[in-house]
Amino acid sequence: MKTTVYSDADGIWVAWSDHRFTAAPAGQTGWHGSWHPVTIPGSFPGYWAEESVEAMNRIAAHPDVTVKWLTAWEEGAPEQLAPTIGLTGTWEMIPGVEEDDMANWSWWKLAKIREDIARTRPDRVVWMDDDIRSDPKALEWLGSLEIPVLVICPRTEHGLTMDHLAEIEAFIGT
């Protein structure tokens, strides 16, 4: 079964916190290995966990999994974030942040994921975004899909947890 995983960046791979004053969120995430401060110029401050990246690299290497960036980082995700933290593979980047229209409650990510799913017709979908629960239209639309959907919405200051990645692995059958 073809699975498409859509990934945000901040709040997913970058656990937002000012690393000058706050420790990495290892206790809240289950990742007790190495954490590193994000050092990409212009990015929000935060940490990333080596173990979460290793788990995602296993998932992304699955032959029936396609991973796509759906983030305001746009080209910065595959060009800066991925190589800096060690995410491997070729992840398509879905642009569209300039189409955001929050004044009219029209989230660009919802429009773009709808277009991509209609175009590519995956058998199931994983959407990882720390803001997804803030958009009732997105949740309603996901609930209306006739394919299995897994929504992963971590706390922004924690990023992906060990449980989230285990849930994704179970969902895709790795």
Describe the structure.
The protein is an alpha/beta fold and 174 residues long. It has six helices and eight strands. It has helices spanning 26-29, 50-60, 76-85, 108-120, 136-144, 162-172; strands at 3-7, 15-16, 35-37, 46-49, 65-69, 92-93, 124-128, 149-152. It has a five-stranded parallel sheet with strand order 6-5-1-7-8, with helices on one face. It has a three-stranded antiparallel sheet with strand order 2-4-3. β5 (65-69), α3 (76-85) and β6 (92-93) form a beta-alpha-beta unit. α2 (50-60) runs parallel beside α6. It is globular and about 45 Å long. The N and C termini lie close together (12 Å). The model has no long low-confidence stretch (mean pLDDT 92).
Q: What's the short version?
A:
The protein is an alpha/beta fold and 174 residues long. The protein has helices at residues 26-29, 50-60, 76-85, 108-120, 136-144, 162-172; strands spanning 3-7, 15-16, 35-37, 46-49, 65-69, 92-93, 124-128, 149-152.
What are the SSEs and their pairings?
Blueprint: E1 3-7, E2 15-16, H1 26-29, E3 35-37, E4 46-49, H2 50-60, E5 65-69, H3 76-85, E6 92-93, H4 108-120, E7 124-128, H5 136-144, E8 149-152, H6 162-172
Parallel strand pairs: 1-5, 1-7, 5-6, 7-8
Antiparallel strand pairs: 2-4, 3-4
